[in-house]
Write a structure and sequence with these properties.
Length: about 375
């Protein structure tokens, strides 16, 4: 969906043909909107530690309804009653051809009036754009904290799927804490926008880092450091029943000290330990064969594949699979054959080959990945 940095790379297009949208128009008068309409989302969920000690407890208190479970045996990511409310709300929206907010009130999440709004920020330039949101750098006036404001245009959040994506993103980021995952500070809205105030990462994206290199490759030491921080974040999400579902170069930011911050949880979802999915989503170059073939699979298998693609790209300056169009790319991915254009250390080559493996039963697991140094 969205990164803090922009890209025009052909192999980093929208998640699928059905998900491609035009870029949103910039809204420069955000700070001029009426602040009286602002609300802040108080999600009252349990905070998860980076060591995963609260596994199975990630719940979001809902007002007189149910709790949305992020993990646990036989738990679905959202209960039927919440989905029914989403469908009912969207049916009314489509019939009226209008969209009223706050969107999260559609599923009875607890809201409270926020003291903060656009007037509390010095809003700077746009630093990232997606299909229906964009990111502006901003400074909170009172605390002088630099933040990234992820700004959703309400007019573009006009389907149940998009609403559910925003709900998942806010729910997950509010309930987790990990050094390699971007933090969310608060959420507020104006008449025309929903705004997520997130941690600002002042370095660069992994994509731009590779572009800055002469041959678009990292040396072994740098690549291993970045990879293991990415894997640490993914392992943490896995332990808490969360699948990111859009791991890619643009969604891996590096701070001033080259530490990883994983961003953009718009496609993320919560899964039980044995919950299988077969949803076609992600970014084509990073999609696993089971996603392309729409086979039921455990979420872990797909993000292990994506991690393998990321490591391959860092070491080789290119992707393992290429195509003149999506269909050709998908055919190559499903076939699973690729070559290494450069000579790389055998240990890293073996790790990549164990991750980019068509057979999900033979594909390495996240715990095993972290054991390889």
């Amino acid at each position: 969906m969205l990164a803090h940095t922009t890209t025009n790379n052909d192999n980093h297009k929208a998640s699928s043909k059905a998900q491609k949208e035009e870029s949103p128009s910039s809204v420069s008068n955000l700070s001029k909107e009426i602040p009286q309409n602002l609300t802040n989302i108080n999600l009252n969920g349990s905070l998860l530690n980076a060591n995963g000690s609260s596994i199975g407890k990630c719940s979001l208190a809902a007002k007189n309804v149910v709790s949305i479970k992020c993990s646990g045996k036989d738990q679905s990511p959202m209960t039927k009653i919440v989905d029914d409310q989403l469908k009912e709300a969207m049916n009314k929206t489509i019939q009226k051809k209008e969209f009223s907010f706050p969107i999260l009130s559609k599923v009875d999440l607890k809201l409270r009036i926020s003291p903060n709004g656009p007037d509390d920020f010095i809003i700077g330039k746009t630093i990232g754009k997606g299909a229906y949101a964009y990111v502006n750098i901003a400074i909170h006036k009172e605390s002088r904290t630099k933040m990234a404001l992820k700004i959703y245009e309400k007019s573009k959040l006009n389907t149940a799927q998009r609403i559910r994506g925003v709900i998942n993103e806010i729910t997950i980021l509010t309930n987790i804490s990990h050094p390699n995952i971007v933090k969310i500070y608060e959420v507020f809205e104006t008449e025309n926008h929903l705004v997520l105030a997130e941690e600002f990462v002042g370095g660069t994206s992994l994509l731009n880092l590779l572009k800055s290199k002469y041959d678009r490759r990292l040396d072994e030491s740098e690549a291993k450091g970045i990879f293991h921080e990415m894997a640490s974040a993914v392992q943490f999400l896995h332990l808490n029943g969360i699948a990111h579902r859009d791991l890619k170069l643009e969604n891996v930011l590096l701070d001033e000290n080259s530490h990883v911050k994983l961003i953009d949880f718009g496609f993320s979802t919560c899964l039980g330990p044995a919950k299988k999915i077969k949803i076609f989503c992600g970014t084509p170059s990073y999609m696993a064969p089971e996603i392309i073939l729409k086979k039921e699979h455990l979420g872990q298998s797909a993000y292990i594949w994506a991690l393998g693609v990321l490591l391959f790209a860092m070491m080789n300056g290119c992707f393992p699979f290429k195509g003149s169009d999506d269909d050709e790319l998908y055919s190559q991915i499903v076939d699973g054959y690729f070559i290494y254009p450069y000579i790389i250390p055998n240990k890293i080559k073996s790790l990549i080959s164990s991750m980019i493996l068509v057979d999900t039963d033979k594909r390495i697991k996240i715990d095993e990945v972290q054991l390889i140094r």
